[in-house]
Design brief:
By secondary structure, this protein is an all-beta fold. The chain has a domain of 70 residues. Helices cover 3% and strands 51% of the residues. The chain is built from two helices and 62 strands. The strands form seven sheets. It has a 32-stranded mixed β-sheet that branches. It has a 16-stranded mixed β-sheet with strand order 9-10-12-14-17-20-23-26-29-34-37-42-46-48-51-53, with no helix packed on it. Strand 1 and strand 2 form a beta hairpin. The longest helix has 14 residues. It is elongated, with a radius of gyration of 32 Å. It starts with a helix and ends with a strand. The relative contact order is 0.05.
Length: 638
Amino acid sequence: MKKFVISALALLTTVIAAAQTMNVQVGNVVFQFPASQAGDMTYSNGGQTMTIMGRSFTVSDITKSYVDDTAFSDSTVQVVYNGSQATVYVAGNVAAYVEPTVSGAHVSIAQSSDVSASTCGEITYQLSGSSTDGDFYLSGKFKATVQLCGLDLTSACSSSDAGGAAINIANSKRIQLSVKKGTTNSLSDYAGGSQKACLYSKGQLQLQGNGTLNVVGNNNHAVKSASYITVKNLTLNVTSAVGDGINCEEYFLMKSGTVSVSGVGDDGLQCDYGDETALTGVTTDHEDEDTGNMYFEGGVLTVNVTATAAKGVKAAGDIAISDGTYNVTTTGNGEYDSDEQDAKGACGIKTDNDMTISGGTLTLKSTGSGGKCLKADGTLTVSGGSIDATATGSVYMYSSSITASPKAIKAGTKAAKSSSRETAPGGNWGGGGNRPGGGGSSDYNNYDYTGGLVVTGGTINAKSSSHEAIESKGTINISAGFVYAESNDDAINSASDFTITGGYVMGNSSGNDGLDANGDFYIKGGYVVAVASSSPEVGIDANSEAQKKLTISGGYVVAIGGLESGSTTTGMSTKSASVSKGRWYTLSSGGTAALLFKTPTNSQMPSSATICAPSTPSLSTASTPSAATFWNGYGATF
């Protein structure tokens, strides 16, 4: 038999020049050598070993060999799944550099450490077909591309190299996972495996292409990289996961494409530090970056999370949003965090550090107890884009002293300087006037305030049905843009100083102060409308109990419910006025119309107001405007 095989192979050397491809099959692996590249076949070990293009075969292992006109591309490895079986096709120029192992539909490929730019270059692994009991495992030390070309793959065991993952890439280098245009691909992993994700990459994972990829994570995460993840062009749907929908370390970057995450048991998207002890900071083109940062530069992201205290998007580092459309909804209730001994709520977009929003459209909703829509523990800077944030949950109360209150937007951090504590349960009320530990708190100087909210442009519409719509545990500085906040607590509250130098700001409260500062409050410019509930609440409040003051030195101001007692004005004219519910008014300065606004219809709104302008202020009723509106319909341009 051996003589026959050798003779047959020898015969092939005489005809291969007239054919396109010589195929050498070993089990379920077919090596494809083009006639133009094959050259001489050499035999050694007494004719027991045959070598073609650097690939050696034990002749007795060859299932068959044949010549045909099959067309294939150099530097490619094709994996075709067909039910309980898979077949691997290896291009001749990389045959010496890959070692495929096939058991049923379980495919494991070891990419040689000799693969480099100077040998065969980057290899592309093309996966297609379907199997309900298959997987793909790849190891190596040089970057590679994995292309999905119409793949439906489900792992049904954990005994293979993939460990229960549908795709497990142990190569620690950059992996380009490309979804071929016009194809729909689905991955599902084994529920009892050891895998970290259904789609896992030890190295950098670049998700791209113009096709669709659906992923289910039955054991832990749906998609995970132990390095960074980038997203471009493709449609990625995570329909369920036991853990996070998408999880990575180092950084996350979404440039374009459509990503949808739902049905997860933890966070939607999470990025952590790869090595917190050796953080790089932001680098040029993110080269070798390890920051825990998340960058959103375009595309459409839709996240719906239901788990207790889950985050739609969570970063250990910074978050930067410059373009794109983002729809994030959380419905889970709050919970007690035993590690931090504090109550935590769900949150739409959360960062442990700073967040910058310079563009894009954000629609954020939180319905669970203690939930928040947008939260930055550092500084939240808004310079562009549009934010619509609505929190409708109630307070989560673990105990009378440990609570989490819902907010549409929260920024900054407040920490006690000593063992002193606020009188509020858990220190979480942070409101004003008639709430414990609020704007009237006299222990202001016992705390350090870091970070906060900076608005230099863009549009913010924030609503909370239970607590502050916008709260800063540091300072608030608004110099431009449109800001509207609505709540039955303080509409906007700063735990420290609050400064407005420009822009359009409206705080609409049906149960507390319209705008409140636990520190000093400065209005130096801009257009401001503040609506409070009935006395003793005021439209604009400062912490006079801690000898802080409200100072107005510029801009155009309407404070329905009045100003904090002891407030001062510099270079401004002030006047009392009366207003009715649900009416449009024009605020004029020296006879010149400056601002067109509408009063709300809430039953707690008082009829008295204080108006301020650079020159003799006055209020007059106005007709419903036909011009463009802002402030959720309560303001309009002339």
